[in-house]
Fold these 4 entries.
Entry 1:
Amino acid sequence: MIKRERAARIAAQVQVAELQKQLAEERAKNAAIREEQRRQAAEERRQEHQAFMAALTELTAEIAHLRQQRNGDGHNGQ
């Protein structure tokens, strides 16, 4: 009887150790997935920022061009 109980206890400990190992592997896998998602989100934000800055640069250049045209037309008409 004691041998059976001891064997059952050892089996339970082995099972607990295996479950802890699986849990640790799942946590590591989930951490890697979260890190990849963070990296992708940061890359998307960076590209969106670059697109915004390019559009802003274009608009600024267009405003400058329109001002030059307006100033040039005003001087020519005098």
Entry 2:
Amino acid sequence: MSFECELKRYAAYFRGWCQAFGEIDKEFEGANGITWLLAEDQVGLILPDQLRRAVYKQVLGKKAKTKVLTVSDSYFQLGDSGFDVSSNEVRGYLSGLLHTFTVSQVLHLYLTYHLTYPSGTRFVTIATKSPLRIIYKEIEPMTIRIE
């Protein structure tokens, strides 16, 4: 059974600006060089260079063509890009997080950072809470399908 809700997208007013991710509960290395950051009400992805440009263009670009992000406890699918979750530990944690997501009527997607990572490292973040309005402006929403 799948569940769909609105995924509000946000872009920073100024290039490179973003808010902190917050406390990280778990961190995992997944397939394709993707690092998963999991917290109570959000998930962050650190993408390798070859995926980052394509995903940023599809997800955070103002002219994004992809309108649906599909998420399950074993993969993320965004247009032509798919991300497998290879770790059983990540799958278990994501399963609980997806349950939290289905309770929310609206999810939010934006870039974040964390002080413990090298300067310039950005996370694609999906959260139940909206980001700071002083940093981000809302752009056209997408749909998120949770399976």
Entry 3:
Amino acid sequence: MQLLHSQQQWELMRDHQADMLKQAQMAHLARMAEKPQKSWWSALRRQPQSPTLTLPASVAPKLG
């Protein structure tokens, strides 16, 4: 009797977790559908170029 009850509880918990996962996936898909679609290339092109770091001659090590 105890084994049957434990198995039923396990199955109920598994079904509940599957339902929660499905709800989370549907909510995620709904959020993704609401966002404006951007291509990955345009997202890369719009990022500002990072400035190049240069050291003044007085700080740079002398070679030779």
Entry 4:
Amino acid sequence: MSLTIDSNLEYLQTLLHISRTTFEEKYANMSVEDIIEAEASQGNQYAIELAQELTSNVSLIMELFDLADTNNKYMILREMSSQQLQAFIPEMEEKDLQQGLFFFTQDKLMKMLEELPAEQLVNTAFELFSREEIVKFMPDEQLDKFLTSKTKKKNKILKHIQSIPEEYVAQVLEQITGESHENMKSFDLSKKFGQLSPLEYQDALKSFQPTQKQQLVLSLGKEHEEWFQLFDADAYTKIINREKQQPEVVKAMSVIEPEYLQNMIKELPNDLLSLVITQMDTEQFAEILIDRFPELVADLILK
């Protein structure tokens, strides 16, 4: 362990109630442990008490090794393995985890977004785009997938078909059945739609012009927002990658639940992961050091 503690020796001097002159003359270049042992052997009661607390007192460790200094945190963390570093991640605040996302390239962010559960991805997309923009940007085959998904109730779609101008619905029915449906009202056109065979019904939905298809998808999506999860993950990431830059994407990812952010941050190399961890609360950092890595604390004291 290579943490420099010289800047903290004044604090140790104060704890031991030793004059600066005596301290400098007797203990120059000595480790914390050796200084405390030397004083304790001479009957210094402060040193005796300090020796008992050295590996368990969070406040003492924070002050003695100046852990409020992110550089000192980093010097400790860089000695740890990837597995050891990951012990800190669950204790970090979401805002600090999110800052770590800036270390990833845009392409890597897209890949990680694709691997999220659909709900997490859609929530991120909602931060970046309006519902209207999402539907507008979706390719035609994605709109078809949305409309023909077996997870939706047919009667809900038929209700929303009534919001499409009658002439467009009539055109689609004529295209599918070969029969004219001019001058029919929306309700009757919707009823005719519902009487189509399953295959004809799906073909009819796909036959709407892009504008009407978008209108139908948007109307359904606003009433049932969970249906936005029916679009493919890569359809979302292609839109995000094309329309937004990395800072905007990272900001939007604040809505992702902590467990998924934590998994993302674990993919950073050790040096960058260490930098992210230095931002965590200093007291929490010290507690984890003492509780999980007492051997590292002991090693610090020996240096």
